[in-house]
Amino acid sequence: MRTSVRRVAVTLAAVLPGLAVVAGIQAATFPEKPITLVVHASAGGGSDIFARTLAAAFEKEKILPQPIVVENKPGGSGAIAFAYVGGKKNDPYFLLTAVTSFLTTPILRKSQVEYKDFTPIANFAFDEYMVIVKADSKYKSMKDIVSDAKASPKKLTVGGTQLGSSDSICAYLIEKAAEIQLNYVVFNSGGEVNAALMGGHIDIAVANPGEALELSKANKVRTLGVFSEKRLVGAPDVPTLKEQGLDAIYVQNRGLVAPGGIPGDARKVLEQAMLKYTKTDIYKKYIKENMLSEAWMDGPTFGKWLDAENARYHEVLKAMGLLK
Amino acid sequence: MRRADRTTGIILLIFSLILMDASRRMPPSATFGPGAGFLPFWLGALMAILSVLLIVQAFRRPATPVEKPAFPSGKALVAVGEAVAGLALYILLLETLGFLVGTGLLTAYLLGVVEREEWRTTILVAVLNSVGLYFVFGHLLGVSLPRNMFGF
Amino acid sequence: MDVFQHILLGFQVALSVQNLFFCFVGVTIGTLIGVLPGIGPVTGVAILIPITFGMHATTAIITMAGVYYGAMYGGSTTSILINVPGESASVMTTLDGYQMARQGRAGPALGMAACSSFIAGTFAVIMLTLIASPLADYALSFGPPEYFALTFMGLTLVTSLSGESMLKGIVSGVFGLILACVGIDAVSGEERFTFGNIYLLDGFGFIGVAVGLFAVAEVLVNLEEPLKQVFVKTELKLRTLFPNRQDWRDCLGPIGRSAILGFFVGVLPGAGATIASFLSYATEKKLSKHPEKFGTGIIEGVAAPEGANNAAAGGAMVPLLTLGIPGSGTTAVLLGALLIHGLRPGPLLFQSSPDFVWGVIASMYIGNVMLLILNLPLVGLFASMLRVPYRILMPLIITISAVGVFATENNIFDMWVMFGFGIVGYLMRKLDFPPAPAVLALVLGPLLERSLRQSLTISHGDLSIFFTRPIAAVLTIGALVSLFSPVFRAVWESTRTPGKEARP
Lengths: 324, 152, 504
Known about the structure:
The complex is a heterotrimer.
Chain A: H1 2-15, H2 17-23, E1 35-39, H3 46-61, E2 68-72, H4 79-86, E3 94-98, H5 100-109, E4 118-127, E5 130-134, H6 142-151, E6 157-160, H7 166-178, E7 183-186, H8 190-198, E8 204-207, H9 209-217, E9 221-226, E10 252-259, H10 264-277, H11 281-289, E11 293-298, H12 299-319
Parallel strand pairs in A: 1-2, 1-3, 6-7, 6-8
Antiparallel strand pairs in A: 3-10, 4-10, 4-11, 5-8, 5-9
Helix pairs in contact in A: 1-2, 5-12
Chain B: H1 2-24, H2 38-60, H3 75-97, H4 99-114, H5 119-140
Chain C: H1 3-14, H2 17-35, H3 41-51, H4 57-74, H5 76-82, H6 91-102, H7 106-140, H8 144-156, H9 166-180, E1 183-184, E2 191-192, H10 206-223, H11 238-241, H12 245-267, H13 273-287, H14 300-315, H15 317-323, H16 329-340, H17 349-352, H18 354-385, H19 390-409, H20 413-430, H21 436-458, H22 465-468, H23 470-496, H24 499-502
Antiparallel strand pairs in C: 1-2
């Protein structure tokens, strides 16, 4: 019943867009035009695929009466997209992908907009991280790495992407937990890190479970541990770092935010739509193929989580010497 | 070309000195290997040497009796200036005018004012061009082109 | 099973009506995307991802792979016709391709680009079929010191892109390297020369710089003489529209070499099609009997880079399929697409889904043939566009450049970059500084700096790392020889010029 009422309203709004604006029909019929989902990274990356999968599912399952349009605004580790969407204050027709960089980039770049300038809509999932070494490496467990690194500090090379990225934070967490010093080598992309590891140019790398397990099945790499509280369901044989005496826990989140100050009912509509999306087969398949852990949070919960994480990142990045 | 080369050399020399100074202020590397300022500093140094060579070469080259000026003057310069100004204005106003209107106006300006084409052809080409590009990029390829307040 | 059974299986998959149809759809879209500047294969493939959701995985990847190598065919079109490089991989094609178009030989240039793409592309697929696995090990043997040596060698080729004055060519190259420093320094996270502008955090957009330096600058130069005939009228006769026998004789060697070079550079995850096309062009110029003619519109200058970038696109499939490592932006998108379809590329893919792997490989043979058939008739159509008077063409070139540059990252700032470098390019043209070395250096700069600093981090600052590893040592020594031989020669010759007597 409700949906049919909404459809009538939407049809009206579509036929008489001018009238709808004049009459001030707003949140009751939200959304009355397509919603733009801004991706902070370039086409083809993890966030882009997340966004395009979501948009396709909305279209196919008709979750909202209006489509979601994906728009890439890459650059500056997200800074360009944050400034763009942050500038659309009160406009509920914009969404933004929010992962680690959503918090770390404003901290590192002292940018004008920060996470507080956005309305959290929902969090979907967590990306886990694993420590890997080459298959024929002499390191069989984290203990081997720790004792070797203690014997010769700054000798072991660990590969990752630019400083301040999830990879570099993972490496730092190991250093801190084990009280060792590693030699961090910066690469351009995760793919290049894995290639350098398999080629024996670096000793250790950090990878997502999907790629790590596939390469380990093919006997190209060995997985030494996962940065999570408990062992992963999909990889029960890989011990956690915690089990091995290293207190290093880290996840990257996949969430969505909207500009600050959007109407409360529009936020509610979006949140409900996202929850509905998590029940679709497309979403379930996406989670499974990418080996993500489901971690649904509604807007307010996500907001609190962001507060806590922001404080933590501040501390970690400061300790890494990246904040002046 | 001698005078032009000399001027270019001097400008490049000043540029490279500024570059070297700015690079020197960058913090040194925290880990092994060179820091952020390493490459720009040495590139600045290399550019400085090259610009000195450029100046020296300009002086050593025999002066030709009639030097062809490097840059045009008069009418030719006006045409280039008009095109540059039109393009700048276009980029400046694109988000206000929207892609369709802005591109149409730029095409019309370049054709009608800069090239002095007769007005009927000008309007026809301007309309076809802006609509065509809007259709291919905005519609077929889904690029979100700038829109004006009326939504096109 | 041996290779023949594998590829037979592959053709059984690829020759189904559905797969043939979508292969055709893919290469057609790819050609269109390649023709339009700014929109590259990365965006093209990404847009297709949601559309292919309902398809079978093999069909989906056949379509997207078609877009990828189809775009490499189309990329040369605007480079040749109007000096607008559509993709970074087709910058080198502008140098001789556009000059050929001005001389009324747009047809042979476009035709040779398509043929060279076909031959080199097919060669790459054959290599992929026969020796994908051993090649993966070769790709892995390239670590930071090897990449440094390779890039360094690439940069020394800047000298061979110079026009009359080698000094000015080197200045242009160093200028490009300085431009490459702008943005966040990946190693330290430090901002360099960004002046607080967030759009500069990732440095200058390559397409904006290249379109400015080449296309906009060219238009401005042509505006100076409104009555000058920019293009010699193209004859639309079959005999003059396609490469003639002499063209073929000139190009067979370059095509063969560019196919091999392009493929092996393409296999390396950190290099890619752009570097392949640069290296191939410079190599041909070095080997040529008449190097001075490069840049004036000779057909080898089109055949070499176009062959190399297609072979590199095939080569990039090797690390993707065998190791799950994307070697280029486009293969990174393909990786994402594979994941959505439940396939995880990696060393096990050949065993776990042979029908998929061999189906896609077989489709690449078919797709290349389709592209050749599709592109040759288009040659006449595109070449005839140049019969439109230049004063009408001029606004079209400016506006298509602007929208193409905008479309690369959806921001106006890139248009300003194009505008600024249009003026810089105009000044460079007037002062006889060749723009090609600057563009080459802008591409190679970040790779050079990163690999240098990676190497020195690994070796704790010890420079011997570049000489103690065999591949790195060979490349470094080759680079040093290539660097110093022309410099010594230039210095030697300049001391013997009559400059001294002319001094007052």
